[in-house]
Amino acid sequence: xxxxxxxxRVAIVGMGCTRFGEHWDRGVDDLLVDAxxxxxxxxxxxxxxxDAYWLGTMGSGSSGLTLSRPLKLDCKPVSRLENYCATGSxxxxxxxxxxxxxxxxxxxxxxxxxxxxxxxxxxxIPPPPNDGTNVDLTAxxxxxxxxxxxxxxxxxxxxxxxEVLTRIAWKNHSNGARNPRAQFRRVVDTETIxxxxxxxxxxxxxxxxxxxDGAAAAIxxxxxxxxxxxxxxxxxxxxxFVAGPGAGPLEPDYDYTSFREVVASAQDAYAQAGIxxxxxxxxxxxxxxxxxxTELVLMEDLGFAERGxxxxxxxxxxxxxxxxxxxxxxxxxxxxxHPIGASGLRxxxxxxxxxxxxxxxxxxxxxxxxxxxxxxxHNLGGAPGDCVSFVSIVGAEPSx
Amino acid sequence: xxxxxxxxxxxxxxxxxRDEIASFLGGRAGxxxxxxxxxDEDTTSLGVEAARRLPATDAGPDVVYFATAHPAYAEKSNxxxxxxxxxxxxGVGSFDLGPTARSAAGAIDAGVDAAIAGRRALVVLADxxxxxxxxxxxxxxxxxxAAFLLGGDDGVAAVAGRASLSSEFLDAWRDARxxxxxxxxxxxxxxxxxxxxxxxxxGALDDAGCVSADVRYAAVAGPSARVIxxxxxxxxxxxxxxxxxLTSVGNTGAAHGGLALASILDVAExxxxxxxxxxxxxxxxxxxxxxxxxxxxxPADAISDWVARDGAPLSxxxxxxxxxxxxxxxxxxxxxxxxxxxxxxxSVDWKFALVATRCQRCGTRQLPPQRVCSHCGAVDAIERExxxxxxxxxxxxxxxxxxxxxxxxxxxxxxxxxxxxxxxxELTDVDPQAVRIGDRVELTFRRTHTAxxxxxxxxxxxxVGDGGEEQR
Lengths: 400, 472
Description:
The complex is a heterodimer of chains A (400) and B (472).
Chain A: E1 10-17, H1 28-43, E2 52-56, H2 65-71, E3 78-81, H3 87-101, E4 106-114, H4 139-144, H5 146-154, H6 158-176, H7 190-194, E5 198-200, E6 203-204, E7 213-222, E8 234-243, H8 260-273, H9 278-281, E9 282-286, H10 292-301, H11 310-315, E10 326-327, H12 332-336, H13 340-355, E11 374-383, E12 386-395
Parallel strand pairs in A: 2-3, 2-4, 9-10, 9-11
Antiparallel strand pairs in A: 1-7, 1-8, 4-7, 5-6, 8-12, 11-12
Chain B: E1 3-10, E2 14-17, H1 18-25, E3 33-36, H2 43-52, E4 63-68, H3 79-85, E5 93-97, H4 103-116, E6 121-128, H5 136-140, E7 143-150, E8 157-166, E9 172-173, E10 182-183, H6 186-208, E11 215-221, H7 225-232, H8 239-248, H9 256-265, E12 273-279, E13 282-290, H10 303-308, E14 312-313, H11 316-322, H12 341-346, H13 348-351, E15 355-359, E16 365-366, E17 382-386, E18 392-400, E19 410-417, E20 422-427, E21 440-451, E22 454-463
Parallel strand pairs in B: 2-14, 4-5, 4-6, 11-12
Antiparallel strand pairs in B: 1-7, 1-8, 2-3, 6-7, 8-13, 9-10, 12-13, 15-16, 15-17, 18-19, 18-21, 19-20, 21-22
Helix pairs in contact in B: 2-3, 6-7
């Protein structure tokens, strides 16, 4: 596979993100208008300057009309993208490539999801007409496959793992509590988390990401043009997206303690960005903590921890705001909420704030003060053994 | 003489202790237990499981007769579902009898006719017995299935004689749209049936050239436990077998004659004469003579032992819920969708017969069937392989407390099959607290849900106590 990347060829010059949560009084159109307006303002851009749009939404609308109609975009190119939970990142990736290619000067990636109107608990993705042989498990159950498998492989007891998962939820809630845009803004003590009603396997309510409404957007220009909009652009160092062969549920050599799709996309992204040791070079990472065991396994797949050692690193606080590498400083899917199409862009929004020094002091990641200037975002969609994965790396400065 | 080439039966995992009913509703506590089909079982799936337990024979059936008083579908054939789940050749006919109690005797009779004509008939009898809460039908009923392969000259029991008497009177009945059975006064029923029993048995003995004293066992089926006992007293036999069945399993309706016969075949000696006696809108008697083969061709899991085992105790609240008599609040999740006809037809080998693919290039087995091998990438280099009888080991699992189910929580597992291949499927007949990685499981045909009037059948896995060694 040759993946050349577009390191430093495009940059983000403006971002916006609505509050995530239960927007009973705001529809999809409202969320798009809000995110769009904030993003334009952030870049100091005029709407007529945007040449093309990439809209990410999993199920809150079909076609580019979902965006062009509420914004009254007059015959602009609008692509609508869907790639499970990596939908927002996929919109961003395609916008970056279009601008890097020279086809457009200024592109906008915008993601939206309105989940709370369904009336159901958790995420519901209606399947196409089928033969009725798929096991209809909820998302927490599918990701809870990881927990007993991790315990089995690394000799971790159920109680130890529960403590680890609780620690992850506690960290992300603590971070989210400091974030005015997060869905859940309350510090939750570990006892409450550990004793919360079980949803699937060992996973309680507090081990699950928030089902939320929200929208987020980014304006992308060629790196050469970035300083026309801001003196602190975010340079896109790497974009990697992979779809796995779905072999996990087919092949007994997969043991449900890793996402090989994540390993593949991370390695590709690190190569594009010229990163050798992510845990020593990245200041922070926004990762796909849809459920707490997912974040645990991701620490190993993304190369932040040795295989079988992430659980100890979690307990040691390595991924806290003041740790070696801060993971999910904005609260993550866990407490920021997870409106599917918007989540990838929301992750970039936190990188935008942190790397530009705009994150509030109580949430500022300590590694920035140690001179680190790179941030990673990661999404995955699907299920363990059968998923898509996205990794991006952005930086505050062009590479030397 | 032709007769029974093989026999098998199936009892569901669950037993309702009869005193549970009284502790819930009040009234006099019954004794013993009754068998209860799982929330994901119906007469068709019970029938499939019974037929799967037939010991292997040289030749399969030429025709399938499926009889039940409570068919899952009307208009559409249930026998054909069973045919598909057993992976039988398309050239094998599959026919339903029912929905009446007497259909069971009719299926045996038709099967014997087919056997005499030189064909082999798979006769499957199944029932799920309910009744109004607190009533005798609910308390004394039971759920089960039995299967017989009839035909050939070297079976485990030969047909010795037959007799049928038809008699129209109101004994037990049900409007075809109802689920509950009504009965006339039992004393009337007994008065009407019992003289006919003696007459029909005498007719069958004449047909066989035997006398009453030759009969060693009687397998009696009838509308109630009481009339079964009374009729049993009129025919020589071993009342203990009949009593054990009624006490621990219950009166299994259209399956009962078959279940009783299977229990008897488990203990009968070669040469023994066995009378099958069905009381339903008349009397149907078949006399069987056990052969030498019976010593060697019994099912692996003796039905008589199975009857005697306790099963898993079920609460009355769960029983009522599973039967749709207690409409309980579910999770805020969408109702399950009905399966679509075209994809179900395209994947009929997978969905019903559990046929996997095996790569001809690298030998990797894959479930569900794949055209492109996930291991070596070969395209359309596949052979098909039924895996329904392959056991497996749990690799990881999930207890889903959020998913919709009439019997929450849903338990799912990743199963690595002996001989290769992996399947992600639901577990059933399982204690969610007890599931562990490494547990051994077997596959079982179930009705996963019903939506839009469509029953969705597919396979699940269930724990096997003595799972045996993993076979590579």
